[in-house]
Amino acid sequence: MPAAFSGNRLRLLLCLSLSFSLSGGSPAEHMMATQTVNQQTQGSPSDHLTLGHNISRPGPDLATKVFKQASGGNVSDATFVEYEVLLPGVSGTSVEKNITLDRGTRIELSCRLDNKYSHLKSLQVTWKRGNETVRHINKTETSWSIQLRISDNSKLGSYSCTVKGEEEISAIFHLQVPKIEGKEKPIVSYEGDTAVMICKSFGYTPIAWTWYMTNGSEQIAINDTLLANKYVIHRISANVTHMKILKLTKEDNGVYWCEAAFELGKSKGKLKLKVLSFMVPLKPFLAIVAEVVILVTIIFLYEMYSKKKEKSAEAEKEFDQIEQLKSEESNGLENSSARHRKI
What's the pLDDT tens digit per position in 170-202? Predict the structure, then answer.
């Protein structure tokens, strides 16, 4: 028995020595490493397996896998925005909400019925985009939503939520790219001057700006590099652009457009230019002068007519007086001749 034991012990020592030589470490280091692993692997068998896997073959954990799946497309699932409309509960009414998007994102549109209408039963909910029905989910008994992955402008447009029961109510979500502010009133300038046009995009940064001029029904892009002596285009800031038109002529009259390009589409602002000649400001003055001339002429003619009328009246008066004198003289002669006859 002692001999067998010592033989087994000898074989064990030989195996340990061989393993030490293969691992390149000392027996003390190996024993310390073994103790450390044994202390770390205390616990359930599954814990041991997980720890053993991590030590022997490091790999991505679950969170990393999810991140890779989320970042597999152009739009990240991490970008998630919720828009909700509270339905008024009044039959025949419709609530509208404008949603501005400049880049790809994932959104959730929700219709929620006011809590005071929670007693309504057997509600039929329909989500549509145009005539196309969109599948929705029931968040609660009084809230319904759809989830959209907006990666290009084909997903933009109007989405409607209609709730039918005892009454019918609806909400409409308008998904659109940012609007560009132009100018409603025309820009007025004069021949030979310089006109400045400005376009802004509030809260959103366009990728690029392009200016157009209207030629009939056609819009022509303006290249300020080729026409540097006529047009000067500057991007003042990330969301503001302006264009100068030099040495204005009558041909510069018309409608101009500024176009902002976003990731999800393009949007345009409209501006109108009116070029006046230098004679235009003088027209009111000339009209006043003409009125004064006409008035003076009328007064002059009236004065001449009045004087002529007075002279005519005086002439008639003199004529009447002469006639009266002649008549009196003739009467006097007749009377004197009658007296001579009596004598």
Answer: 899 999 999 998 887 899 999 999 999 999 998
| CB-based contacts of 125, cutoff 8 Å, min separation 6 | 111, 136, 138, 144, 161, 162, 163, 164
Angle at 155 between CA 150 and CA 160, to 5 degrees: 110
Cα–chain center distance at 124: 35
Q: Which residue has the tokens 């990393």?
A: 64
Q: Is residue 299 scored above 60 in pLDDT?
A: yes
pLDDT of residue 317: 74
Cβ atoms of residues 188 and 195 within 8 Å: no
Note the pTM of the prediction, 2 decimals.
0.57
DSSP state of 252: G
The residue ranges of DSSP E strands in 263-335, in sequence order, are: 265-276
Q: Is the predicted pLDDT of residue 303 greater than 60, yes or no?
A: yes
Q: Are 140 and 152 in contact (CB under 8 A)?
A: no
C-alpha dihedral over 176, 202, 84, 113, to 10 degrees? -90
Q: Which amino acid is at 317?
A: K
